[in-house]
Design a protein that fits this description.
This protein is α+β, with helices and mostly antiparallel strands. It has two domains: 86 residues, Probable tRNA modification gtpase trme, domain 1 (Gyrase A, domain 2); 77 residues, Heterotetrameric sarcosine oxidase (Alpha-Beta Plaits, 2-Layer Sandwich). It is built from four helices and eleven strands, in the order E-E-H-E-E-E-H-E-E-H-E-E-E-H-E. The protein has a six-stranded mixed sheet. A five-stranded antiparallel sheet has the order 3-4-5-2-6, with helices on one face. The longest helix is centred in the first third of the chain and has 12 residues.
Length: 193
Amino acid sequence: MAELMYQSPWRALAPRGSGDGVVATPVERRGIATVMARKGQFAELSACVHRAYGVALCDRPKRVSAASVTFLGIGPGKWLAVSQRPDPGFVAVLAARLDGLASVVEQSDGLALLQLSGPALPALLEKGFQIDCAAFAADDCAVTSVHHIGATIWATGDGGFAIAVARSLVGGFLHWLDTSAAAGGLAVVPDRG
């Protein structure tokens, strides 16, 4: 059977206005999974994740990262796991490693990731997010909404943010981004991962 052709969810993302007040970088082809700890298994799950990936899971809204993976605390006993580079086998390997300790649900084709940076980013985030993103410390994350679209947002530690939205809602998200960023300029740079 022939493989389906990959189409970027961000194919309609284009520069707007003049300048680079906000810089958008699509994050393409990452393995993404929701990880939910089984009842009474958090300590063993945390130890397993530490052995396998070298990170200590936080059971709060924080990002923890290693060279190959990022875990985002998105609820009690629940994380979004994202591969740091394109890796088609990431979710299968993660599920095998966490077997019996957590439920692992594939999200790679359901979520779209975008990194945002630039001097006009704080003003942009104020225009759409229902939370105070300016109050985020390094590695904070939240499950919230942007312009009535469900989103997960996290501070990347370099003054920027990364956002995950449902792939099916990227069009609505881009409408908000285009409109809100045009005044300061929206620049687009390719994924370097």
